[in-house]
Amino acid sequence: MSPQPLGDQERLDKIFEALDRMNELAATHTVLVEGVKDIAALKNSGVEAQFYCVQSGGGPVRAAEALWKSGRSAVILTDWDRRGNSLAEDLRANLSSLGVRFDEEIRSDLAFLCRPYAKDVESLDSVILRLQKQILEEQRGNRMRGKIVVIEGIDGSGKSTACSRLGEILSERGFSIVVTAEPTHERIGALIRSGSIPGISQATEALLFAADRSDHTEAMERWAEEGKVVICDRYFASTVAYQSSGLDGSEVDRDWLLSINRRFADRPDLTILLDLDPEVSLARVSARGEGESKFEKLGFLGRVREEYLRLAEEFGFTVIDASGSPESVAREVAAKVEEVLRCIRRKRYSARRAAS
Q1: CATH 3.90.190.20 assigned to 8-127
Q2: CB atoms closer than 10 angstroms to residue 64
Q3: Helix (H) and strand (E) counts in the chain
Q4: Are 317 and 238 in contact (CB under 8 A)?
Q5: The pTM is what?
Q6: Which residues belong to CATH 3.40.50.300 in the chain?
Q7: Burial class (CB in 10 A: 0-12, 13-18, 19+), 259
Q8: Among 50, 57, 122, 235, which has the highest number of CB atoms less than 10 A from its own CB?
């Protein structure tokens, strides 16, 4: 068998393959073992065969004679320690002298597969149970739910930069990351971003955002269930803050906006609001050389900021001063997220300890 490193599942599969081969030989072969504990372990592991206990049956000579008289072949399955190896050599010599056919590949394979955990046949069933437990705990650890982190803030507050940098920081620390944003680039989200439906009311636009969010939330939940950390640029608070703040003198009823987004409010594990003075945010947008969007008006962004802070108090958002450098803000965001992620590390560490 190849000496390549094996994972627990592959090791277990190959052990069962070896045991299946033993069962396939059961009609014509007798399994030669050292003691009665070996027979118990093999039976517990699913082997249904005829056994011969070499130690209590008179040793290698008597074992070979018994096989010769019965006309059966042998599977040599002594332990893979020094004594077991010596006994296997004696059995080979005596069986060969009488012309009795024998298989020793199964022993060689089991020795390689079980040696990291045991050196004797009587521990085979314990090795199987140990591997099964380790596989189960690893699967539980791998399937352990990740987290959904949302970054909110007015235009120019540095959300996109913080999301990108946060993803890099967490990836470096071993987390599997998905960085996403709203509106999405899928179906309804792409329609919103395209601006190809001019003249619709803010209420209709809010419903489109909610529809896009519904599909997006399903995807984020799926990613989190896979154990990934989902970092989302904008979520429900963005719709409420912007649509209720009276763009061009019109506004959508805040309570209604909250009602159509209520089921999304408790989905994130952490929402961080990057708080910034609108004058500073507009200066940043201008410095980027981007064209001004319909939302980038000083008075309007002031109202949006006030609404964001109100939502932060109502829904328990973490508020971070976004006036610092992008790197310092990203580090502060990462520190807050790390507090939430520590529970994942603790659970995975506990799972590994339980498997050892």
Answers
A1: no
A2: 25
A3: 14, 9
A4: no
A5: 0.58
A6: 143-355
A7: exposed
A8: 235
